[in-house]
């Protein structure tokens, strides 16, 4: 892409995807790149460890920057937003996707406070305060640009409602993210900035690699109505349609991407 093409493209919308260099976040990034977004990709690994992923996204024709930083850190969140302001000068869509599983699955009668803090600070506190920062900036952008379009999308999990007693901290973090979605949807309603929750089921990524055999058996036995693993691409399609404004009058809603797993059955 030459300079004039790049400067032309840089009038397009910008999305920040936390945890966007692999797994579900990367699936989202691919769809947003194809939809004409420029991307700020966040993660904890150094940039040289994710350069292949960033280059593949650039090959789809978008401008991509990497914002390394731990979303659980106040300082890192400030730096992420400053880097986007310096490079793009705007932000239309925040996708809170970064997340961790407990390092060790332990029964809630035995699990540690350290693990609780690790999971909650990453999966909930990070997303909550990044949303606060992005929302305040979107409100300012709206005063400067009459046709500004912005939205916030939280990637939660079926664990927001499905109890797994060997990873209670993860379930609580996702249930909290679900309420955070409703809170910010309520607060940002007057600005017409929708906030959505996308709730995936069992998705094939590094996070689930260690439990592949267990989930293979569950899927074969009908855990979900659709008898296959979910893919990052499935979540990417849903998030991209939200980010492009396909559900403008649905703020605060949950979009299920779980193959029907959570439909109660008798
Ligand atoms: P993954 O393959 O393990 O990728 C996690 C991503 O989050 C990585 O890019 C990682 O960065 C980033 N990340 C982790 N901690 C971070 C931190 N403190 N600050 C910034 N970035 C951080 O996981 P995934 O399966 O794609 O999961 C993505 C999201 O979907 C998570 O919120 C997860 O809870 C949710 N989810 C997953 C499933 C599933 O079955 N896989 C189901 C429902 C919901 P690096 O790449 O730099 O390490």
Automatic annotation (TrEMBL):
SUPFAM superfamilies: NAD(P)-binding Rossmann-fold domains. Pfam families: adh_short_C2. Keywords: Oxidoreductase. It comes from the Bacteria. Residues 13-196 form the Ketoreductase domain. GO terms for molecular function: oxidoreductase activity, acting on the CH-OH group of donors, NAD or NADP as acceptor. Belongs to the short-chain dehydrogenases/reductases (SDR) family. This is NAD(P)-dependent dehydrogenase, short-chain alcohol dehydrogenase family.
